[in-house]
Amino acid sequence: MSIIATKNFTVREYHQLEELGFLNQTDHVELIQGVIVQMSPKGTAHSVCETLLYKELLRILGDLAIVRGQQPITISDHSEPEPDLAIVQNIDDNYLSAHPSPDDILCLIEIANSSLKYDQEVKLSLYAQAGITDYWIFNLIDNYLESYNQPYKDLQGKFGYRRRLIFLPNESVNLPFFLDLILDLSKVFP
Q1: Residue 96 sits in a domain of what CATH number?
Q2: What average pLDDT does this structure show over 156-182?
Q3: Count of domains for the chain
Q4: Which of 54, 98, 107, 115 is most solvent-facing, going by the fewest CB within 10 Å?
């Protein structure tokens, strides 16, 4: 049996791979804990949910925050995921100087069918470890929104969220950090 060494990339090295032409935007990859991960292809239900959600969030939030779709966020020196949507704080340069970091993030959103287990385990732990206060998964398999908040670290060193709430597609949910703003999920789920 032979052992093949693997390389854990930093965010800087990951960007260098793109600059050198080893990666391009059509590759649909993201950096998770030093590993370059192939992102799942999007089906029509995923695309419709993402489009409707993006449209609703822009309408509801207006100029209160920035809604970013499929754009990188820098979690650590070894992780730069590209969540389906991110609600981030307004800043003067609109993140021209750097991608949003955990302190900038108000809510991360993944839309999941084939990636559900990965989003519920790997990304959930990654986001909790980074201190992301609110994480949503639009679960297209079970047809509901999973809302996670209050990140924690347990005694074994694992990260997760204390609270998990389920919202059905005929319900409404308050937006994190903007509790007076309400998202009608019937306008989002396909």
Answers
A1: 3.90.1570.10
A2: 96
A3: 1
A4: 98
